[in-house]
Write a structure and sequence with these properties.
- The protein is globular.
- Strand 1, helix 1 and strand 2 form a beta-alpha-beta unit.
- The protein has a single domain, classed as NAD(P)-binding Rossmann-like Domain (Rossmann fold).
- It has a seven-stranded parallel sheet, with helices on both faces.
- It is of the alpha/beta class.
- The C terminus is likely disordered.
């Protein structure tokens, strides 16, 4: 986008909301957690920008269908949509219940579908607009005990790249973001298969997560400004992306080998 000042961004994620506000955006904050929204709104308003809060479950189709009109009623426009809500399911495919699969796909994939589908007509009314969809390093590589999460993030990547090919010519950018280890609570809020050790997995994630949410947010904002199709945030994302292109089978074998040696990461009921 040529400019961010006085644009309206719809976003989940406090760090990204603040980063956009510091660039001059007004922000519509979306989440299920009202307390978290109010805290994020205070950070946005501290920059002198307007913030509105919208308590919405992104997996709720009807709530997402009505959300764009609520944002327009508050701000008058919608220029940027950031589909950032995400959850994790720590379980092998065999141990994942259909209910858990519905849960993770409802948020990680259908939430992105709704965010794109219902906001796109409003984005088309602006002279320039942008969609940001959060995929993952796990949207590039397949990881043991993360089959549901990987599938949802690969799906986001496929949707985003196809959408880019359809609408970027119309002045609507689409950026797919591939974070790696970002210091968030996603591992601690994950669902786990029976027999899994949530704390052990969270500690393993914490040892690998070295990038702050604020640093990640800054890179995403630069991606919006540059109209980038892809943003890879952490060094491991760059490394595995190139490894997977050059040595796809060997890379997956290496991931399997490494997962067997990380406590809590190799699967709950695996015989390996």
């Amino acid at each position: 986008m040529k400019q961010l000042r006085d644009r309206v961004a719809v976003v989940t994620g406090a760090a990204l909301a603040t980063a956009l506000a510091e660039k001059g955006c007004h922000v519509a904050l979306v989440d299920r957690n009202e307390d978290g929204l109010r805290e994020a709104a205070r950070h946005v308003e501290a920059t002198g920008r307007k913030a509105s809060i919208h308590v919405v479950d992104v997996a709720d189709r009807e709530a997402m269908r009505t959300l764009p009109d609520r944002v327009v009623a508050e701000h008058g426009h919608i220029h940027i949509v950031v589909n950032n809500a995400g959850v994790d399911l720590d379980a092998s495919f065999e141990d994942s219940s259909l209910e858990d699969l519905d849960w993770i796909f409802g948020i990680n994939f259908w939430g992105v579908i709704y965010g794109c589908k219902f906001f796109l007509p409003h984005l088309r009314r602006e002279e320039e607009a942008h969609i940001v969809n959060l995929s993952s390093l796990f949207g590039i590589i397949g990881v043991p005990n993360q089959s549901a999460y990987c599938t949802s993030k690969y799906a986001v990547r496929g949707l985003s790249e196809s959408l880019w090919s359809e609408i970027s010519k119309d002045g609507i950018g689409v950026t797919t973001v591939h974070p790696g280890g970002i210091k968030t609570n996603i591992a601690r809020s994950a669902r786990h298969a029976a027999g899994g050790d949530p704390e052990e997995l969270a500690e393993a994630f914490d040892r690998m997560a070295r990038t702050s949410p604020a640093k990640a947010a800054a890179k995403i904002v630069r991606g919006i400004e540059r109209n980038a199709m892809r943003v890879r945030i952490t060094p491991e994302t760059w490394v595995f992306d190139w490894m997977k292109r050059i040595f796809p089978t060997w890379t997956q074998a290496l991931i399997r080998w490494g997962a067997d040696r990380i406590p809590g990461a190799s699967g709950s009921n695996s015989a390996a």
